[in-house]
Amino acid sequence: MAPTGLLLVNKSKKMKKILFVFFAALFLCNAYAQIITVDPGASLTIQNGTQLHADGLTLIPSADFILSNVVLSKSPTAIHPPVNIYISRVYQFSNTSNAFSGSVQINYNDGAELNGIPEANLTLNIYNGTNWGQYTAGTRDASNNFVLTNGLSGITLNELTLADPVPLPLTWLSFTAIAQNNSQSLLQWATAHEQNTKDFYIQHSADGINWITIGSLPAAGNSNSIRHYNYVHTNPVNGLNYYRIIQTDIDSRYSYSPIRTLSFTRTLQPFTILGNPVNNSVLTIQINMATGLAFYTADGKLLWQEQVNVGTETIDVSRYPKGTYLLKTISTTQKVVIQ
Known about the structure:
Number of domains: 3
Structural class: mainly beta
Largest sheet: 8 strands, mixed
Number of helices: 0
Helix content: under 10%
Shape: elongated
């Protein structure tokens, strides 16, 4: 398995050119991680025949490859989604690189990261800053979980991932997020050529890293016409809100929409309910200020109360019957619907 690492190259160290042969360091990764940072004025040179190992990505240039003024990150979703289903591992250059020639290896994990793609289908996909391209010359190793692609020539790198050459079960036409009355988010998307589609899951994040499913809608199943969908998020957080849609099909494959953002500036409420109605037995609450919090039945019977601090609280509500409840602080009351 290729080593993981975080490499920082900056001007203050007066590192204008680095011969990079091998780098390994302990680095704790989350869903989104910066792997390499090369500051303006500095450069990182990977010489012909040497290897750059970066958290599951290996670059093996056949000619010197120079990086400068760039951040290389790893994310589960693409900024510019490919037209086909891809794994939940995307390597992103903050600025499109110089032309690269040589070989690229991407390691991956079994299970959910594959998004239902058969390992025998995994194909290197590269976004060059304008278009996605598929590159098939190389080796798939399902035992050691990597795809090595050879013979790349003069390709600029912006995003890299592994994808299924089989087309998506739908075409994403558009996805927009519109703020309404500085209090809620209207999400609208359109698709075409739906084949065996099952559901759309609407996801929200306050930081672009940690995502919560806030709702779902059934998909068309099979349709040759343009289909329109919309969803209203009634509890966006103060500040930036990130949204994406996950489409699933009947074969358990799925794809992501692009990410959209909205910003709200409002009087800060003590708490925000994330995902209401609650349909998975877990009530998730964003606590915006330290406060006392109480949970009541609709007719005013106290079920529990506690002192909470700023952060995210998750509460198991599986023991309560379906229905409407009240979540209260001294100054605020919000309805909670358990389904």
